[in-house]
Amino acid sequence: MGKFFISPRKLPSIHTHIAMPTRRRLVVSLSLATLLLLSSFSLIHSKTPSQNNDDNNNNKDDDHDEDLSFLEEPDDISPPPGSHLNHPDLDHLDDDDDGGDFDDFSGHDPSADEAYKEPLVDDRDVVVLRERNFTTVIENNQFVMVEFYAPWCAHCQALAPEYAAAATELKSDGVVLAKVDATVENELAHEYDVQGFPTVFFFVDGVHKPYTGQRTKDAIVKWIRKKIGPGVYNITTWDDAERVLFSESKVVLAFLDSLVGVESDELAAASKLEDDVNFYQTVVPDTARLFHIDPKAKRPALVLLKKEEEKLNYFDGKFVRAEIAEFVSSNKLPLVTTFTRESAPSIFGSKVKKQLLLFATSNDTEKLVPEFKEAAKFFKGKVIFVHVEMDNEDVGKPVADFFGISGNTPKVVAYSGTDDGRRFLLDGEVTVDKIKAFGNDFLEDKLKPFLKSDPVPESNDGDVKIVVGNNFDEIVLDESKDVLLEVYAPWCGHCQALEPTYNKLAKHLRGIESIVIAKMDGSTNEHPRVKADSFPTLLFYPAGKKSSDPIPVEGDRTVVAFYKFLRKHASIPFQLKKPTSTSKPGSESSDVKESQASSTDVKDEL
Ligand SMILES: *[C@@H]1O[C@H](CO)[C@@H](O)[C@H](O)[C@H]1NC(C)=O
Ligand SMILES: *[C@@H]1O[C@H](CO)[C@@H](O)[C@H](O)[C@H]1NC(C)=O
Ligand SMILES: *[C@@H]1O[C@H](CO)[C@@H](O)[C@H](O)[C@H]1NC(C)=O
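Above: query sequence and 2-acetamido-2-deoxy-beta-D-glucopyranose SMILES. Below: predicted holo structure tokens.
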């Protein structure tokens, strides 16, 4: 996929706040950005009409002797093909979210330029790389961090002072921090598949991996030191011990018989698998005691200490790297994490993918969070418990919207993680027992997914049937009907351009019982049988084959092309009667009225 942009006004506040004064703290992981982006404004890529000529040619055989021009006759108010290409919202967005890159999906936001004057950053320790000296620098240095940036990108500007300070601090560690202006070095950017700004990589002996931590000096320094360091540090004196306990908010201590050897090696290896917890080892019983390990305990013993509540977790597995790392990753998060920009990366970056989210307003926090916490104890390492404060203006609304939650009554949502993205809703009272039962059903896959859905319309007898999440099965999966479904979004220009054509098609076909022409607002409704990665997406669900994947409708977006498509793919054959007289008879007046009505509709919508 090439370049893609999304217009800034559609970004959720979590992203657009970036130009505001608290910039430094606005660190959002890609996962969250993706999560939020995928939600409300999907991924548009325009399919140019007429790209699918092959299909049309094949169809010609069926239809070449048929004059279909009558289909287009009542004034076609759809814009000429291609005119939508001028639409200012021609948004392109790649839906590939597997990487750990930091993607600044907001593209060039001119308003951010006005609001933001680049501060003078002393970045003398940041090495400037160009195409011609890039390879040399990577080859001659064991550790190089490279930031691909664009001068206009506000996230990059926000990162600049942090990055410069990290460069200065890490100089003595033999780490090079470098930057590449990706708007100049296109080939380098292309070679490293840079799709957004800033994209930050860390090269160790020439091998790179994305930097996925927070964009602050401290986070960068800590992350790099972890990658280049010995993995595990010794605590030999009381002073060491106090300093560590004082300065770290989460720490692992192993109480060993020896500072070298197999156990120490396993510990060091486990440490390398963890990005944000430092590992220490000691052989001194008094140090162990200070870290709440019984000095008489059988060695090796290991504890994870957290400043947050719960504080102590004792490891009782086999003393090998995988088990230690697993133990740390499942216990390092608090029982309940409150959703904030800062906590988002650890929530979505966790190895534990399944989540239970409590949505409650601050009024209910005091009552419900303790219940939620109590339940969380039973799911450690299996499910992450997250509290979303619905009235938190920063994150509450975008997150609630993403999960399709509205209103002020508390709700618990189970979320299967970004990979398959299924959601389940706990109905009714939020108590420890209810949450436990719900969580267990969730783990055993016994719940029925919760769908984002508008209310089912009370009457639905227009030519174009309205489909929502909750009537999808009934309308689209009706085995006795051939169903054409348009998935659209209200703000999507292509969809608006298509509307008159689509309405006209539906009007022509309204007499045909076996065919349903339907549309669904994909920004507020969902169903597992719909995969729409762009708007509009047109899908055809043939009668009698509802358990197969729908057929995507590509090619021209004209009434004739749609009609031919239906003729070709419908399970139940049908034939439209050409009006007996092609000249304008009396019946025409009603046609005119209807098309006028629909043209008014279109104007209202635009
Ligand atoms: C790489 O080349 C650019 C342009 O010639 C120069 O400004 C920069 O200092 C060079 N960097 C290194 C590390 O040599
Ligand atoms: C810890 O102590 C051992 C034994 O003295 C030593 O080999 C090792 O290098 C020390 N580790 C660090 C990080 O200083
Ligand atoms: C919280 O409670 C107060 C007092 O009952 C009420 O005025 C307020 O609207 C409530 N806030 C929310 C977000 O429900």
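Residues 127-130, 133, 137 surround 2-acetamido-2-deoxy-beta-D-glucopyranose (ligand 1) (CB under 6 Å).
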